[in-house]
Amino acid sequence: MIYKAQGHHIDLEQVTRLYPAVMIYAGGERAQVSLEWAALKQDVIEIEAYVLVFDFDPLDALPHNRVMLEFTCKEALIQSMKEVAQMM
């Protein structure tokens, strides 16, 4: 099944990891954190984007082959997650 979003054609049958995250700016660098952590620290962090991460590498390998869809708000991320869930 191919999920089409933000100019990407993502083969869901090839995905080995799929997870939501938040991109933050911390210490002069971008970092990826969990939604839960971002919610706990929302008063002290700067959220750059919400992301849905699709990894394609084997589970025992470091992820190098990935697609990240970026969203400006949590609601858009949740909507994309629902679309992917319906296709899987």
What fraction of residues sit in β-strands? 35-45%
Order of helices and strands: EEEEHEEH
Segments where pLDDT lies below 50 for 5+ residues? none
Structural class: alpha+beta
Radius of gyration: 14 Å
The geometry reads as globular
Number of helices, where a helix is a run of at least 4 consecutive DSSP H or I residues: 2
| Average of per-residue pLDDT values | 93
Sheet with most strands: 4 strands, antiparallel
The spatial strand order of the largest sheet comes to 4-3-5-6
Number of domains: 1
Helix content: 10-25%
Terminal Cα span: 8 Å
Number of beta-strand segments: 6
Structural description of this entry:
The protein is of the alpha+beta class and 88 residues long. It has one domain (2-87). 23% of the residues lie in helices and 44% in strands. It is built from two helices and six strands, in the order ββββαββα. It has helices at 35-40, 74-87; strands at residues 2-5, 8-11, 17-26, 29-33, 46-55, 66-71. The strands form two sheets. The chain has a four-stranded antiparallel β-sheet with strand order 4-3-5-6. Strands 1-2 form a two-stranded antiparallel ribbon. The radius of gyration is 14 Å and the shape is globular. The protein starts with a strand and ends with a helix. The relative contact order is 0.23.
